[in-house]
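Reviewer comment 2.1 asked that we show a complete input and output for one of the modelled complexes. We chose the protoporphyrin IX containing FE case, as it is the one discussed in the main text.
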Amino acid sequence: MGVFLDGWLAELVTALSLAVVALYVRFHWRYQYWKKKGVPYDEPTFPFGNTGLSILGQKFYGNVLHELYKKAKGKRFIGFFSILRPLLLVRDPELIRRILIKDFPSFHDRGVFLDDEEPLNRQLFFLSSAEWRNRRVKLTPAFTSGKLKGMFQARYTTDVIVSVGFGVDSDCQRNPDSVFRHWGRRVFAPGLKVSIGARLNFISPPLADFLRIKGGFTEVSSFFRKMIADNVEYREKNKVTRKDFIDLLIQIKNKGFVAGDKLENEKSTEKTVAGDFPLEDLAAESFGFFIAGFETSSTTITASLYELAMHEDIQSKLQQEIDEVLKRYDGNITYDAIAEMSYLDKVVSESLRKYPPLPFLNRECTEPYTIPDSDVVVDKGTGIVISLFGLHYDPEHFPDPERFDPERFSEEEKANRHPYVYLPFGDGPHICIGMRLGLLQTKVGLVNLLSKCSVQPTEKTFRNVTYNARNILLLPAQVVELRFVKRS
Ligand code: HEM
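Response of the prediction step:
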């Protein structure tokens, strides 16, 4: 016998039904949000809003956003929902420019949730603005071209990142099972639970916060933190210096700034002092460099090689440039030699257009904001999303967008289009801090390979790429099979 009804089962079913109805009403009411504001929006469905396929791992989030972008053709922005959270996808390049740069004070957070109980989460990409600003000022001098030139060694992605970031030799090229590749893979090819968590951190931060989902790094946390702590201790004890990020981060930890840069004097305000960048933050930051630089650059190298294999004419033209420049540098792949390869720059730019490793940018509205030339007020807390697939594949900006054409990046073509329709590294104060390093290591990898080998498709090489729906970063769902043929 139940308290109100005949049996406990009937009471349970009734209570559950009432809860579902209450939830449904709550969602239905929330889903009127954009309508009430007079903003065009994509009709959401209960309970995931417009991002269900991505949260459930059935569709790549980059593609979900691309479709929304296409649906909003002719409009400056479109509203949508991630579960209960209203988001605004912005299409208009002029409005994008304002959000990223001029009106940055109203959008200074990225709006991604990562639990700060996990020490590795305390890194630039995820910090909220109060801490981010100070950290960004400290870290910027570590990425100047002078510093990169000093660190530069001709190695490939994992090795470069590991060498410059961690000060240890990873030997990933000769040993594909090296410990770094192993841990790198654990970060980027996580299990189901971690991958759902990672998607929620980006797609639905409030739910991730509610569920206290820590982000994907807990599994790898102790390995990286111990490695960095041992490394720092060894260097400090034995007075070892190497020209790498760890050196620079140790300087920040001990002195509060990086020596030898203009910024040292310009920006060392009273906030930039020793002691507010402890070892734990140093570890988080170097781990951040590892994760931000590992997959992004290797994806760009793979994408470039894939397109070059499919376009023999472009590959020959590039190899001709590489051969000519390297001849002048006695075969040495130096920083200056890479800088002289202008066609290489176009090829990499076009690869980043078609395959932006992070195919969206996000910001959170941090104070009510009236969209210029409209009556729409964006409320504090609203998520702002910019679809890079949308912009980079928009035929209005890039005619015949599926075609791989490095000439889109000739000075003339670049001058003919709006600068905010091509944003593989983002822009504004949150722009990728590792842009120069990412480009450099991608180019070094390509030059190393293409100076010795040509690349060809095999019968198994796919013609239509699809993306791994469980990942936030762009990763092909299939293996990219290519044949390398030694050049004579
Ligand atoms: C081809 C390589 C790379 C691509 C395409 C790429 C792309 C991006 C993008 C799109 C953002 C977001 C920018 C925004 O929101 O406006 C970003 C942020 C960031 N990237 Fe990269 N990245 C690359 C390589 C690297 C490397 C090598 C590092 C470090 C060693 C790095 C470190 C970071 C950090 C720390 C942030 C956060 C910056 C901030 O919020 O202040 N990235 N990157």
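Residues 122-294 form a domain with the Cytochrome p450 fold (CATH 1.10.630.10). We note this here for comparison with the apo prediction described in Section 3.2.
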